[in-house]
Amino acid sequence: MNDVGRWHELADAIKPETRLFIDGRFVDAVDGQRFATLNPVDGKVIAEVVCGNEKDVDRAVKAARRAFRSGAWSKKAPRDRMDVMYRIAQGIEAHLEDFALLDCLDMGKSISELTGGDVPFSALTFQYFGEAIDKAEGVVTSTDPAALHLIVREPLGVVACVTPWNYPLMMAAWKVAPALAAGNSVILKPAEQSPLSALLLAKIIHEAGVPEGVFNVVNGFGEDAGKALALHMDVDKIGFTGSTEVGKLMLIYSGQSNMKKVTTECGGKSPQIIFPDADIDTAVTYSVNNIYTNQGEVCSASSRLIVHESIYDEFVAKFVEEAKRFQPGDPLDPATTMGPLVTREQQKRVLAYIEKGKRDGGRLVFGGGVPAGLEAGNYVQPTLFADVTRDMTIAREEIFGPVGAVMKFRDYDDALAIANDSIYGLASAVWTKDLVTAHKAAQDIEAGIVWVNCYEHGDMTQPWGGYKQSGQGRDKCFETLLAHMQTKSVWVHLG
Ligand code: NAD
After folding, report:
1. Ligand 1 pocket member 398 (CB < 6 A)
2. Per CATH, is 4-266+471-489 categorized as 3.40.605.10?
3. Residues 438 and 274: beta-carbon distance below 8 Å
4. pLDDT in tens, 334-370
5. What is residue 1's predicted lDDT score, i.e. its pLDDT?
6. 271-459: what CATH class?
7. 396 close to 389: Cβ distance less than 8 angstroms
8. Is 265 a known active-site residue?
9. 164 lines ligand 1 (CB under 6 A)
């Protein structure tokens, strides 16, 4: 698995499925459209993928509703549904290399991150929600002896999952697994930049025994297939992961159609506060990893490093030294730590933020351009700005690329004011050896996740989601399973 030549041979030989998956079959689009998916390493076409629109969405919704009403999945005994979920997890593990290749080719993520992270975590997601199925119990309430009051949990119906390109398989797994586990029918609309792995997932889900029509994949563009799903009158819920801008549109579409439930996992501008008593070397290592991993295309990337003035210079110097570990290169090489950005457009966007950072007075201390010799791809050097202030665009907007910003603070109140001065509230971290400071900051930070003396640690029990404009709802965790169900009150008169 460590041989770059072998990965290239596998990549050359791969023949990805490109059609939509509707009602248990791979099919072409009603209007026969296709779109090209490009390799971000060189801009070459990987495949011409079938492009769904409103008509295909409608076909998928009808199939999903029919399957839901049939009860073949929605009323399947929990233990039987669990077995199918476990088989999906095993199927993902068995196709580890295929999934890793598809996501690597589509969006440029390093192959070792995929084989060691995204793919096994996706399998674990199906396993976790499988395990949780029969723990979602109903309630018999304490009430009048002349009545029996049952609160039962039922699936919602047809759930549409609209996902981003930064962790194509894993974000699909986070959305699809709880929806399926709860007994819903599902339609997945992957991002148009990374359409391939969802189709392999469809094959595995089908082979694991999920009945026809229960799981569907409609690739296509956001403003077209995505919008059609969000406006559809027979979709009961949208589970969305993506930008805050589109997350807000999802809420509007719901109001314009059938008030479907909406959960959104959106952008971030996550702060790490490094107090003067922190273990600086460890804080530096985590800070470097968590702004450059996945090319910085991570919702929870630690893009704001808020460092006490007494250790500021030391922190910046150590960061720059350690950042050299991240060398952009061929994502099919298992030794590569950073691949290209997903598209040329995303590369231009990130480079424009770097220029803006310089114009606004940020001090560029690392990277800042396109790495030499890699101009054919969408590469951006790992980049760090020091002396960033709260008002600068690079401190306020989500860049979604490998660009860190270091900011200086005087005291606790100053640090918290900087950290909370954001429309976002997804993740955060506090670095200190002092228990009181750690707990106080964990209380005061406006974010869905607070890490203390670490970053990106967690497991499937961890609620993943944001405060403020980072969205509403949570991924992973037991609460997410319940969010894919609704309660019904059954009141039996015994008098
Ligand atoms: P995006 O919002 O552009 O697209 C996400 C999905 O929405 C895609 O499938 C796209 O086709 C679809 N879409 C776009 N416009 C639409 C419309 N008008 N109607 C319906 N659907 C539409 O986001 P992206 O660029 O794919 O992903 C990057 C964003 O995702 C970043 O902001 C990142 O922070 C966020 N993200 C958040 C989390 C989290 O857990 N909070 C995880 C991963 C990514």
Report:
1. yes
2. yes
3. no
4. 999 999 999 999 999 999 999 999 999 999 999 999 9
5. 56
6. alpha beta
7. no
8. yes
9. yes
